[in-house]
Amino acid sequence: MENKINQVRIESIDIAGNGIAHIEGKTIFIHDVLPDELVDIEIYQDKKSFARANLVKIVEKSKLRVDPICPHYGVCGGCSLQHLDYSAQIDSKQKVLIDNLKHIGNTLPENILAPISGQAVGYRHKARLSARFVTKKNSVLVGFHEKSSSFIADMQQCTNLPAHISNLIMPLRQMLATLSIYNKLPQVEVAVGDHVSVLVLRIMEPLTVADEEIIKAFVDNVTNQVAIQIWLQPKGPDSCYPFYPSNMPQLSYTLPNFKIEMPFLPTEFTQVNPEINQKMVDLAVQLLEPTANDTVADFFCGIGNFTLPIATLAKKVIGIEGSNQLVQRAMANAAHNNLSHKTSYSMANLFKITSQWLDNLGKIDKWLIDPPRDGALELVKLINSTNAPKRIVYVSCNPATLARDSAILVNLHNYKLKHAGVMNMFPHTSHVESIAVFDMDSSK
What we know:
It contains 10 helices and 22 strands. It folds into 3 domains: 5-65, CATH 2.40.50.140; 90-119 and 273-440, Vaccinia Virus protein VP39 (Rossmann fold, 3-Layer(aba) Sandwich); 126-252, CATH 2.40.50.1070. It is 23% helix and 28% strand.
């Protein structure tokens, strides 16, 4: 079957954005196709139970197919759905969520929330770009990896990044190529705040005096258009420090409906899409319905993205996080917003907790859970009659683990799945961000 041209009808697309078809009962995954399209494909990987193929020709095109907005689409692996109409992308993600809840969680929400969406370009305010000197091109490349490859895409721009960052890609490439450590600089991390944008250069060897002057000249040349600060990272994320210029405002973002300002370090986790983050926080707090009598737990609280908005309405919010650095940042952000008296933070590995630890938190009226892709299995398994909250708002970046945890909450702990819906945090990608609300079923 391999290297042979086959014609297939695309049946659906999977969670990674690949088209699915079948040949003689075998599942075929195809890049850059859409449901109902008739296409010619060439199989490049033929396994026992599945195969992977590249698109050769579209014979019958879907009405939902659009022209990609980025000239690097199809080569760069940063996006996988630019060929699909933007509204259809969101519909597809909603379908992925509901399918996962149904087939993995054996449950469905009583109400499907309207999707949260925002601008389709320039949304990505956090990014980790690879950098590499390529001998054949005699150039330093800066960007995302090519699709299904370890090679870095030869990018001149990126429509997902804010325009002022995208416009820096070529000048940045040219500047890095002139450094003495041009081949010892594997990564450039981007962090865009409300008042300044930071580029973190991951350096494997110290800069020379000449290197420092080159970087300073680069910044001076672009600061007429944008406020840029260079940070250096000689080792792990904790080694990151500001280099030039020194008199820049601190990185921060705002949650205007709660009058919250959130300072952060460029290597700390923050949501990549500030517009969707604001809408997500607004919705999460609305669904949680914290009152002046409620004590709320914010599990996987990070720097306080949900903790502080909830604290403006609740009696008290307890933030739990597995990183001491993030706990310290969350405490500082609480003080920065005059909310220390309504918040408390502690460090705990939420993948290795006990029911006794959870019981010791005391009476918690409501939970906000925002776990990484692995979900919150250990946490939801430990719910009992002593520690069970009356409402849980669960923010998820992986519909499969949300569905798995939903099955436990609904089928073992007598919660009702009241609401669920998607938030398009990463347009043009297959990433599915979602939110769900669980209420204790008092009738049981």
